[in-house]
């Protein structure tokens, strides 16, 4: 079986590095969060966050990757507020014991802020 150009060996200088599976999963979570802001969606996202934690992805890395992916998709107006809440929940996560609580709280806060922004912008 032949690999595509992304997995050539020996490596070339300009070779693109494909994202890891967990990074694609986080990107999928971000798309879910932006597509629908509801308790049902929050529950689904929580299950996906558990999946990442079970597979030994550190919670701080999950939060940073979530923020990174969200910032790629957000309007300039929201970026500052989302960064503020990410920092807030990262600090709480470091002080607390159960990372999932703080990750889920960040997701819920983001959904709340984003839904309010959509209502304010589009009515």
UniProtKB/TrEMBL annotation:
GO terms for biological process: DNA replication. Signal peptide: none annotated. Transmembrane segments: none annotated. It comes from the Eukaryota. GO terms for molecular function: DNA binding. InterPro entries: DNA_pol3_clamp-load_cplx_C. This is Replication factor c subunit 3-like protein.
């Amino acid at each position: 079986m032949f690999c595509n150009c992304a997995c050539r060996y020996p490596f070339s200088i300009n070779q693109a590095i494909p994202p890891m599976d967990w990074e694609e999963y986080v990107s999928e979570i971000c798309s879910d969060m932006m597509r629908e802001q509801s308790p049902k969606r929050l529950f689904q996202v929580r299950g996906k966050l558990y999946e990442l934690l079970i597979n030994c992805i550190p919670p701080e890395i999950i939060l940073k990757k979530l923020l990174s992916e969200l910032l790629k998709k957000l309007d300039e107006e929201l970026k500052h507020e989302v960064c503020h809440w990410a920092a807030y929940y990262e600090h709480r996560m470091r002080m607390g014991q159960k990372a999932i609580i703080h990750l889920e709280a960040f997701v819920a806060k983001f959904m709340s802020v984003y839904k309010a922004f959509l209502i304010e912008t589009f009515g």
